[in-house]
Amino acid sequence: MDLSMRWLRDYTDVTAVDREFSEAMSMSGSKVETYEHEDSEISNVVVGKVLSVEKHPDSDHLVICQLDVGKEEPVQIVTGASNVTPGVLVPAALDNSTLPGGTKIKKGKLRGVPSNGMMCSLGELGLTVNDFPYAIEDGIFLIEEECEVGQDICSALGLNDLKVEFEITSNRPDCLSVIGLAREAAATFGKTLNVKAPVVSIANDGDDIHNYIDVTVSNPELCPRYTCKAVKNVKIGPSPRWMRERLRASGVRPINNLVDITNFVMLEYGQPMHAFDYRFVKDHKIDVRNAKAGEKIVTLDGVEHELTEDMLVIADSEKPVAVAGVMGGENSGIVEDTNTVIFESANFKGSSVRITAKNLGMRTDASGRFEKGLNATMTEEAVLRACELVEMLGVGEVVDGMIDVCNADLTPISFPFTPEWISKFLGVEIPTDRQIAILNSLGFEIEDGNIVVPYFRTDIHHKADVAEEVARIYGYNNIPTTAIRGVANARPTERQVFDRTINEVLLGCGLSEVQTYSFVSPKVYDRIGLPVDSTLRNSVVISNPLGEDTSVMRTTIIPSVLDVLSRNYNNRNEHMWCYEIGREYIPTQEGKLPNENNMIAIGMYENGADYFALKGIVETLLKALNVTDIEFEAVKDNPTFHPGQTARVFKGDVEIGIIGQIHPRVAANYEIGTKAFVANLSADKLFDLHEPERQYAQLPKFPASSRDLALVCDKTTPVAKIEKIIRGAAGKHLEAVKLFDVYEGEHMEKGKKSVAYTIVLRNKQNTLTDEEVDNAVKRVLKALAAEDIVLRS
Questions:
Q1: Strands 341-347 and 397-398
Q2: Which is nearest to 128 in space by CA: 7, 2, 262, 244?
Q3: pLDDT for 117-143, tens place per residue?
Q4: pTM (whole model) above 0.85
Q5: What distance in Å separates the CA atoms of residue 541 and residue 34, rounded to the nearest whole number?
Q6: Whole-angstrom Cα distance, residue 538 to residue 590?
Q7: Integer CA distances (angstroms), 409 to 220, 221, 225, 235, 406, in order
Q8: What is the pLDDT of residues 303-312, one digit of tens each?
């Protein structure tokens, strides 16, 4: 926000300038980025009066001018401008002067005739015809302002303002206005704020705005309030100099009196406005509605935009005439023959404006204010101020009446005023009267022991917010440093303990932690053999990627781990055991953020790496996380993994992840010349399944009984399946099932294998009898026989 100090002093008598003003405002919470004097690049340029103009003896286009610049003797300047005549006032850059852009003017000779300076055009002073409409674009600037010969040109043209640039945070949209910053300055320096309510005369001529326009708000959620007034018999022309000066110092180009009024009010109050040419509002009806699919609009900047159904527009009976809160349509702009206008002052939902402006690539001064969340109370005051300026400048006649469609709750926020608590909270005793004076200077009111928050302070919701207001105006430097009262009892969250456990266990298993980029190339999906119709190929595309190799967000972390293994293998590291806790990004609906899944990836080669080593690490991790009753199911259809050494990991019906050997073809794609093993587990699912507290049992009082069973089954039968059958049939006294032998050899039938288990049974209440143990074994053998698994004879 650029603030004109000349404009600021219209509302408060702050005498501090430059550094003093900037430091005080920054200390009170309105951070100043920089300040700049308008005349900082112009020196030794004065108002000169042309006394005579003579033709140059050696040139057809040069003339010799004598200028009165307020000195004893006239100054001679040679120029090629054709619009200079005796008696006119011009900007005269004298010898050893400077102009914007660092241009230095020295005396010299032109075609042998001495020239002691230069007469300036608008452009050479850093100005345009928008700043002085009576001037011409090319040629010497002929001054028509009231000024004196020899007067400094910056003083004569009003170029002696101080512009202060503020960094306004998103929670303070009220400071995106001159009045808002004037209020802050008045409170900071202990001055009075002089802001008068706008006054508009009543014509009582029988004319009323309802005779001109009909307004409907079809989406009150996105447009809580829509206020408008009409102005007839409009006379388009330049704005007065005082208005042009203030707009220019605020970084806004003056255009004409009507457009300048809307910009002036936006800067003054922080409430964006728009003026519609009444002729171009079809059927004289306005509807604030959502755009229709495929609807298009050409905005004031001449660019055509295609709208979507989630965008709010201002429409007439046929088409959109403005994108709500962003920019008006080309056919709604003010032109030279505009006769009647409709002033719009509305309130729009900030998030809707922000998303619309972003999707259309149209960030404007208006959208920058709306998206921060303005209060709906402001619309009426702003439109009345615009009409007051219309009457003040003689732009037109304000039509009686106002259309105000209001669906917003305008009740001010109020809560108890607690001065004692504020003093205790800040650690310094601030008298109640002083607190009230500070709050009153900022627009707060104290009524019946309650503090009433002003409508423009949308960031105040709690007494702690009020304490901050008191502290910043009282002065942070006046608050003594005090020790923190109480004890800070910080402790890690359950998720932090969970993540820490993962790191400790995997590091303890001999793995090294790695971190990889979350953005990858789409080609990695081919390298790991994903089918062309795999949903994992649907990635979030990065809008501004560094290159094709980092153009999408990964949907699987496996390629990242394989990159690490490949890099280490090809740098001749003999072995690599690593892990990463990273994220996979799964797209959701278009325009929505993706799901970010936290994953645990393990990668290994050499140094004893095989399927069982990897499985052992995974089981060790799950045991440490207290995730029990895990099952492994063989996988043969995953193209990334070896079909004979891969398994999915389950707990009940929940699939936790996959482990196994990388397919040799995929390993070759990554130039890994040895067997590589990878596990990919969902950290989020494990967190949901894990038991943060372990349950401990007393040491057993009664002895256990065990039986060894040597079983014959098909070679393809997973031992996990056999163990599951045993656990399901053994009964409530089963304590453990231990596999201690697997045999395949010449003494076995072809296609068969022998697996041997120890079954441990224990009754916690008394000693098991042989009969109880035998019955449990019989139940197990019967259940196994149903699956063609029998005792080895």
A1: unpaired
A2: 244
A3: 999 999 999 999 999 999 998 899 999
A4: no
A5: 38
A6: 12
A7: 12, 12, 10, 38, 8
A8: 999 999 999 9
